[in-house]
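Hi R.,

Here's the chain you asked about this morning:
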Amino acid sequence: MYTINGDTIMRDLEFKSFEIETKKTDTAGNLIISGHGAIFNNIDSGNEIIESPAFDKTLKERKGRIAFCYQHDIWNPIAKITKLETDAKGLYFEAVISAADMDIQTKIKEGILKELSIGYVVVSSRHETKNGVDVRILEELDLFEISLVTIAMNPLAMVEGMKSEEKRDFLNKEFDRLLAIVRNEKINFEIRKLKSLVLSGLETQGNQHESEPIMKASEMLNLLITNKD
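And here is the predicted structure, written out as tokens:
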């Protein structure tokens, strides 16, 4: 349980990634970026389908309270969302990054920072089988933030194509990096537990569900870092 903008959240915060679609600079030197934070009615890489009404309640009740952050740091917004709506393709947004954040602006213009992630809570969903695959249909989502991120959805989500020994080395380094960044003793303890669980799970090679604990750990780590204070 944690709180964002005064709202107490009981369910897990989840994430989906996407890329900036357009960027331009206005006459005041502000950088305007836009894109689609969600695509409707297609099966994504997480075997999920977002139905077109999924964000309707959020947009009706809290449209002006969606944060635009850097690295899912909900306490440090970096831009103002000027447009947030649904269209035939999905959830469309436009945001203005202030001229005061020239370092971030420059990295976006140079393509160093180009990935984004939305943070949301699943309010209602159902499961269906499509082409022999279990697919989760997301019926209603409570959107809380859009973030500019270095690697969308956490680096742990990228380990699927690695060999076992490469995964172990990569994950060791990532966990150690997080432990060095996060100074909170309680969260450090939880990260160490996750590290032990994930690395021990790599011993079960050949298990078709091997990626599940890794992906779950990825989501949990994002939550821990977002709520590090």
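One quick note: DSSP finds five helices and eleven strands in the chain.

Cheers,
M.
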